[in-house]
Design a protein that fits this description.
The chain is an all-alpha fold. The chain is about 75% helix and about 0% strand. Helix 4 packs across helix 7 and helix 4 packs antiparallel against helix 10.
């Protein structure tokens, strides 16, 4: 009887504290995901009530859609470059802002601010900078690199997309790296200094191994965020010029809501999710294997 009461009390406590979050997660994430998988087997156009069952037709069409695979490959390149630059810049800034320089708290807040700006607004701001400010600056100081808008060429637009992404997300990752730096036990650092280790050796052999959880978290967040980017892609380049910066999320949106092939777009979204999930899983598995105990 006591065991039943104890179990019932635990269930009641769970429902009180975690119940609302679990219910919200099921309603907002799990059920829509299951429904989305169902739609991949239909020929729904996104508007009518008719959802004819088409079997694996949409998945066959995914593998025949060359534009989707081009956008996916472009997305993989964009993610690879962005993740490297985001984490390299965030780590360097975190190292600087935990070194005791003056105004480091103010600088932390300043570097985090871009992450608070929505992707749509951020894209339009940087579109103005690339198309007007930098061009006018190039005319004044006669720099060929700024002679025309970077957004007018495929390579320049792609570079601009990576730059703005790095500028937006590095401030968020910065805070995680800072928490990693300050969590390194000071007694280990002091012992290493007594043994004659210099600053670079402290970072390489003590701080970085102890910060593996921070690296794992930052890499996971930056990979998943970059794979799903749509708003910045829309407002900064709109996929141009000539679809040269049309990432996978934008291609999927076009298929579902502009071409009225919602089932096909949902199937492509599922493929994108699987690719992102596999890459993130490999990254987490490799990172967890390198964690060390304090």
């Amino acid at each position: 009887m006591k065991a039943k009461e104890s179990f019932g009390r635990k269930c009641g406590t769970f429902l009180i504290f975690a119940g609302p979050a679990v219910i919200s997660f099921v309603l907002v994430v799990i059920i829509p995901m299951i429904y989305g998988v169902y739609l991949t087997f239909t020929g729904w156009d996104g508007f009518t009530n008719a959802k004819p069952f088409v079997g694996l037709t949409n998945y066959i069409a995914v593998f025949q859609d060359g534009a989707f695979w081009n956008s996916l490959w472009l997305t993989v390149k964009y993610v690879a470059l962005s993740v490297v630059f985001i984490n390299a810049l965030a780590f360097a800034l975190a190292y600087l802002l935990t070194s005791g320089i003056k105004g480091q708290n103010f600088l932390r807040a300043g570097f985090f601010t871009p992450n608070l700006i929505g992707g749509i607004v951020l894209g339009y701001i940087w579109q103005f900078i690339f198309s007007r400010v930098m061009v006018d600056l190039g005319n004044i100081i006669s720099l060929p690199i700024f002679a025309k808008s970077w957004l007018s060429s495929p390579g320049g637009a792609f570079t601009a997309l990576v730059i703005v992404t790095t500028w937006q997300y590095s401030g968020y990752m910065l805070l995680i790296y800072i928490s990693g730096f300050v969590s390194v036990p000071t007694d280990l650092l002091e012992a290493a200094r007594i043994d004659g280790a210099n600053a670079s050796q402290l970072t390489r052999y003590i701080r970085m191994p102890m910060m593996v959880p921070a690296f794992v978290t930052c890499l996971f967040l930056s990979i998943t965020r970059c794979f799903k980017v749509y708003d910045l892609n829309l407002s900064l380049t709109a996929g141009g010029p000539y679809d040269s910066t049309k990432l996978a999320a934008m291609h999927i949106y076009t298929q579902a809501f502009e071409n009225h092939q919602y089932g096909l777009g949902q199937a492509e979204a599922l493929v994108l999710f699987l690719v992102m999930g596999i890459i993130a899983f490999i990254q987490i598995s490799m990172g967890k294997s390198k964690e060390v105990e304090a």
